[in-house]
Amino acid sequence: MNAERVLTFASVAAAVLAVFVALEYWALILLALGLLAGFMNPEGDPVQRMVILVAALGLPHLADSLDVIPQIGGHINSIIDNVAAVLAGTAVANFVMALKDRLRCCTS
User: Which of 11, 13, 16, 96 is deepest in the core (most CB within 10 A)?
Assistant: First the structure.
C-alpha cells in the first residue's frame, strides 16, 4: 500500500470519526492530513489542481442540501464538510508547490 492510499484512507477515516467523536482539534488534524497529502504527492496537472480547488470550495455548499434527509442528513453533511477541509489543505499545498515551481522556473 503506497503512502497516497494510506493518507486517503486516514483522511476519510478522520473525516468520519470527527463527526462522532468530539475533539477540539479535528479541523487542524484534517487540514494537516490534507497538507501532508498535497506536499507528499503534488499534483502536476493544472486541471487536477483546479478540480481539487473546486471540490474544496463546492462540496460544503452541496452538502448543505443533505440536511433535509431525516436522521442521517446532518451526519452526511458533516462528513462531506470534513472531506472538504482535507481537500482545502491539499489545494493549499498544491498551490504552494506550483508557486515554488513557477518562481524557480523564472529565477534561473
Answer: 11
Which residue type occupies 76? I
Question: What DSSP character marks residue 15?
Answer: H
**Rounded to two decimals, what is the model's pTM?**
0.89
Nearest one of 93, 105, 103 to 33, comparing CA atoms: 93
By C-alpha distance, which of 10, 19, 26, 14 is closest to 72? 19
Question: What range does the domain containing 16 cover?
Answer: 3-107
Q: Give the single-character DSSP code of 67.
A: G
User: From CA 94, how far away is CA 72, in angstroms rounded?
Assistant: 33
What are the grid coordinates assigned to 78, written together? 458533516
How confident is the model over 53-106, as pLDDT tens digits? 999 999 999 999 988 899 999 999 999 999 999 999 999 999 999 888 888 877
